[in-house]
Design goal:
Elements lengths: L7 E7 L4 E7 L5 H12 L10 E5 L2 E2 L17 E6 L7
Parallel strand pairs: 1-5
Antiparallel strand pairs: 1-2, 3-4, 3-5
């Protein structure tokens, strides 16, 4: 029998709404899944194109979104940022 993956909380700032989302993840959660879940919760619905957004951890873009939370060095209470790939014009 295998042990259940231990869940822990991480915070994700979604800059489109300037709000934090707290997600329960495990060490094997992929960055792309974290991005999808954070955007869905923050934007109150399905996101049309995940490729329009990037994820940053410790100030740097996570270029391989198939990487796991553990492989990028995240632990409980780590913070991520999800932001648009392209800058938006402010009027």
């Amino acid at each position: 029998m295998t042990a259940a993956a231990e869940k822990f909380a991480v915070r994700v700032m979604v800059t489109d709404v300037w709000d934090h989302v707290v997600l329960a993840v495990d060490a094997g959660t992929r960055i792309t899944d974290l991005k999808r879940e954070a955007l869905t919760r923050a934007l109150k619905g399905a996101v049309r194109d995940l490729d329009d957004y990037m994820v940053k951890f410790r100030g740097a873009e996570v270029s391989d979104e198939l990487a796991t939370i553990e492989s990028v060095g995240a632990t409980a209470n780590s913070s991520f940022i999800v932001l648009p790939v392209r800058r938006r014009i402010v009027r």
